[in-house]
Structure formats: C-alpha cells, structure tokens
Amino acid sequence: MKPSLVLKMGQQLTMTPQLQQAIRLLQLSTLDLQQEIQEALDTNPMLEREEEGEDFDASDPMAESLEKAPDGATSEQPGAESRHEDSVSTVESFDDEDWGERIPSELPVDTAWEDIYQTSASSLPSSDDDEWDFTTRTSSGESLQSHLLWQLNLAPMSDTDRLIATTLIDCINPQGFLDEPLDEVLGYFDPELDIELDEIEVVLRRIQQFEPTGVGARDLRECLLLQLRQLPSETRWLDEAVRLVGDHLDVLGNRDYSLLMRRMKLKEDELRQVIDLIQTLNPRPGSQIESSEPEYVIPDVIVRKHNDRWLVELNHEAMPRLRVNAQYAGFVKRADSSADNTFMRNQLQEARWFIKSLLSRNETLMKVATQIVEHQRGFFEHGDEAMKPLVLHDIAEAVGMHESTISRVTTQKYMHTPRGIYELKYFFSSHVSTAEGGECSSTAIRAILKKLVAAENPKKPLSDSKIAGLLEAQGIQVARRTVAKYRESLGIAPSSERKRLL
C-alpha cells in the first residue's frame, strides 16, 4: 500500500471553550467557585470586584434576586444576560502629575518601602505585640497522639520510661484504645535495653491517667472502669456501677435486665439509676479530641416565606460581584493589531465570557431551585413526612434541560430553608407504592419510621416486621428488609439493642 491523501466529510459534536467553561463552573461548589473567581481576578486585569459601598448598577443581573411567584413562575427580567455582559463601571483615574507629586524620585538612604508607605505586609502586627497570637491563626486540628505527647512532656519520667510511653501512644487508635497487646509492644524494643513486660504495664498505667479519661484502655470494660474510678468517691451508686461493669458487662450488653437484677440483687428502679450512671461515660474517649478540620457549608439558594408565598433567591453575599474594568477596556483599540492590544482584547473577551458563564450558572441554579420548591411545597409547609417522590428526570423536563445538567446543578449546592440547610440532592428520592395506587417518597417513609420508633415502648421496642405492619396499616406497602435498610440509614439500632428500662 502506498500513502495517499484522502478528503472525507463528516459530522462530530464538539464543545466550544466557552461551553466547557460554563459546564465546569456549573458543577463547582460555592467554596470552589469563590476560589475560581479569585484566580480569575488575579490573572485577568480586565476583571474587577465590586466593593461593598460602591454604586452598582441596579439593572445588573448579578445583583437581582429572583422571586418565586404564587403560580410557581420566577420574576426574571428579560435581557439580563446581555445587559450584564455590557455592564461596566468607571474606575477612578489618577493623573501622572499627581503620582509624581506623591512619590519622590529617590527614597532616603537606609530606608525601605515599608518605612514610607504602608503595605499589606507591614500592616501585620509585630511579633512583639502582646495581642498578636500566631498559634490562633496558624493552628490546625489537634490529633489524639499530639495531645497525649504534650501531656507526656509534662510528666517526670526516665528516658527508658519515656521511650516506652512514646511507643504505647503510637499504638493507641483514634478511639483511644490500645490496639497492640503488651507482649507485642515488648518486641518493638531493642533487646539490649533489657525492658521487661512489668515496666510496660507500669508506664501504661501512667498513660491511662492522662486526659481524656479512659484513654489507653485495652477493651471496653477497662475503659469504663478507668472512668468510674476517677469519679468522686461520694458519687451515688458508684460501687454498684463498678461491680456491674467489672462482672456483668456482657449481660448488660444483651439487655437482660431481669438477670441483672437477680445477680446484682437490685430492684428495677435501683438498676435503672446504676445504668444511668454508666451511660454518662464515654465508650470512645479518643473521639473527644477533634483532629479533622471543620467543614463549612455556604448556601447557594435561600428560601423564605413572605405573605404566604415561598420566595427563592440566590445568596449574593456568598458570591462576589464582578464587572469589566472600564478604564482598561477603554485602552483596547479595534484597528490595532500589536501584541499588547491583542493581549488586552483577548483578556477583555475572556472577562466577558467568564461573567456570562457566572450569569448562566446562576440562572440555571435559580430555575432548578424554583422547580424543587414548587414540587416539594409540602415539605416546606409540614416537614419530611410530606416529602414527595422526585427524580432528576422530573426537574429536567420542567426546566427543559438534560438530566446530566440537573445532576451537576444539584451536586454540592445547598439550600437554606426555615427547616435547616439541605443539599439540593436531599429533595430527590425514590418512591414506593401505596394501597390506593399512589406513591410515597422514601424520605417520608424514613420520617414516619423515625416517628414510630420515638413513640415505641422502650421495654418492648418495635421489630422491623412490626414496623412494616404499621406502615401497611397506613397504606404504605414496604417489605421488612426495606424497613431494615431505612432504619440502618437513620442510625437506629435493631429492636434487641433498643430495649431499655423505663
């Protein structure tokens, strides 16, 4: 075969850079979008942020709030997209002569720029300032190991004991329990150190006196006993609680209260008070030390009720207002093809497309949020039990978009409502059939299940089969395994573990 040139015609679907940018911004969360906007402001001189207090064009779509009318429509002004693209504002200009008067040609000898003019770096407090606390601005979440090591540094110990304590602390899991048996810990040390098992046991008891109380325990029984022994001696029912945890913890775990009363020789009311004392203890003492950084949620949409109408509006406080810098835009010359002018023209076009993509994102988010509120009006009025079945296809048909677009809009986007802050995906749920031929949302079934468990008799908790029967009596046909799945998703224990004394 010989190489040859062949001309073919065909069609293929391609995405323009503008469309790719719009899709990428659409799926970003609010925090990620703020970072994206800041990056655009840092790299594009044509973009600028509208500072608070400045006059902002009232017709700017970025400053408008869309309200949901009684009939479910949104009050959206036509032509907002084009107005926003062309909206620019004037920027204060400085004459070169003014700058020449303000900045001398030469600075005094042995001086720095910060000595004459204040900068962002020089505005920071000095290290000698008593009010300046570096740790409060740079510290992160503390781990359990670092918390224990800090206490270890304050404890008087020999070098050998400190080495043993450091090794034991490394073997403590985030829950506060010692994972490794002491004989295995002994194998971690050099035989030349001549460390014995009794020494490790003594050091472990020292660590078990650290905070949080109960840390360093090898099992749940030892953890609870450590906490009980550090309570004041005059604590009521303390001796009975120590005896119950030490000798009958397995019976308590099986919730066999009649057997406990016989073995402990206590009446029902006395046993209840002993168990109440034990329930004040922490079975996972290490969880008191928070090592993870807090996660913040910024709502994208705000829903509120005003004059018997549910209003939907964007959270403009979480979104910086952007505009095209009029001064820089005025430097662009149409007929000039120089490299500088071409760069400025490209930056101006990118700035306009970026603002247009943000506007498209907000409009799409408003459309989807408005339809969700319209469909789930019962939830906002009455709570989870009034939640209706909803899938992505329903919203996609209502707003005339593809399901993949709806999925991007509802991912990591949050709605602030009078009932709390919810991710948009929370309002989507599957359904089960009812006896009347209708449909019931799985979220509503979970709410009903939670309500039934809260009202059950603690001595005789409802089994999954009994809950399924009660739901069927309300016209909701749910299998027992479905009830178990919903119960586990709510973090509700089985009936055998929910049994307790009144």
Automatic annotation (TrEMBL):
Residues annotated as domain RNA polymerase sigma factor 54 core-binding: 134-328
Top-level lineage group: Bacteria
InterPro entries, sorted: RNA_pol_sigma_54, RNA_pol_sigma_54_core-bd, RNA_pol_sigma_54_DNA-bd, RpoN_core-bd_sf
Keywords assigned: DNA-binding, DNA-directed RNA polymerase, Nucleotidyltransferase, Sigma factor, Transcription, Transcription regulation, Transferase
Domain RNA polymerase sigma factor 54 DNA-binding: 342-500
Keyword DNA-binding: yes
One term of GO molecular function: DNA-directed RNA polymerase activity
PROSITE patterns per the UniProt record, alphabetical: SIGMA54_1, SIGMA54_2, SIGMA54_3
Region annotation (Disordered) ranges: 41-111
Biased composition (Acidic residues): 49-58
Record function comment: Sigma factors are initiation factors that promote the attachment of RNA polymerase to specific initiation sites and are then released.
Family of the protein in this entry: Belongs to the sigma-54 factor family.
Record protein name field: RNA polymerase sigma-54 factor
Organism from which the protein derives: Stutzerimonas nitrititolerans
